[in-house]
Amino acid sequence: MSSAYDVLVLGGSGVDTIVYVPELPLPYADSYMIRPGIETRAGQTGDFVALGLRSLGLRTHHLDMIGDDPSGDLIRAFHRDHGIDFTDVLLPGGTKRAVNLVGPDGRRLSLYDDSRSQESDRLPESTVRALAAASRHAHVSITHPCAHALPLLHEAGVTVSTDLHDWDGENPYHEPFAHGADLVFVSTTALADPPAVMRRVLERGRAEAVVATAGAEGSYLLTRDAEAPLHVPAVTPPGPVVDSNGAGDAYAAGFLFGRLSGEPLERCARYGAIAGAFACTVPATVGAAVGRDALLAAASAGTEGGA
Asked: What single string gives the DSSP state of each residue in 80-115?
């Protein structure tokens, strides 16, 4: 029997306030005049992975905890406007939010409000089980409630991916995700020895592959039978780089599209690179992701990006 969804995305919903600053780090001053302005919009890691998957034609359902507040309304509208099925569970502390400072070169500094989550927050087991049973794959954000959902996903028999973001390879908080996923994404930003950390994830967990993203340097792919990570070059963005917000999420979506289409892992990484490059050309205040036809055309022609 075919599944209702290709991917179930768990966690990672929130609202960001985007502030474009003249430089990063931002020198102290009493005040700055900001252009093109300050804007609050829905979209954090889980939202953008879901958007990327939906734009690539994958049947996607997003499950997360958000507040009964104006920020939560923005998230519900985001999913409705982009045609993404969304199940929201009440988060008593209110919707998660952050402030993103974006420099002229597109680099980002994120300030996360860590006061919204509580130890007792949980996704309902019955809801997780029902959606997992209707899905081919689950992509899990590293938010607290999702760690408790991992065993339920394993019981359902779906494959699991996760993005550890800027993990340092040591923080124990990330380990349930690193060791409980079949496919692990991680940024090289805070890794002193990326190959060693990638190998350790493979040895201690269930992952068949670990992907370390390195921005303009491309990405690195390590599988269980490989002696060393394979370098996959970055691609040239199809337009000016204006914002790196969501580039990693877009990469993950592109990679998962390839994986669920049965493509070899190296080609999946190529898809990820194309999707991530496109994301860098989109302002954080705009919700847009590369489409299936553009991605496949760029990959097939060997050209970079694609609109």
From this structure: HHTT-EEEEEE-TT---EEEEEE-TTS-EEEEE-TT
Low-confidence ranges of the chain (pLDDT < 70): 1-2, 303-307
Question: What CA–CA distance (Å, rounded) separates 34 from 43?
Answer: 22
Residue 304: its pLDDT value, please? 42
Domains in the chain: boundaries:
5-14+44-94+118-163+235-298
- The CATH fold assigned to 5-14+44-94+118-163+235-298 is UDP-N-acetylmuramoyl-L-alanine:D-glutamate ligase (3.40.1190)
The DSSP secondary-structure symbol of 147 reads H
The residues near 273 (Cβ < 8 Å, ≥ 6 apart) are 218, 219, 232, 233, 234, 235, 251, 254
β-strand pairing of 97-102 with 108-112? antiparallel
The predicted pLDDT at position 119 comes to 85
Query: Tokens 């996760």 appear where?
Result: 162
What is the Rg, in whole angstroms, of the alpha carbon atoms belonging to the chain?
Answer: 18
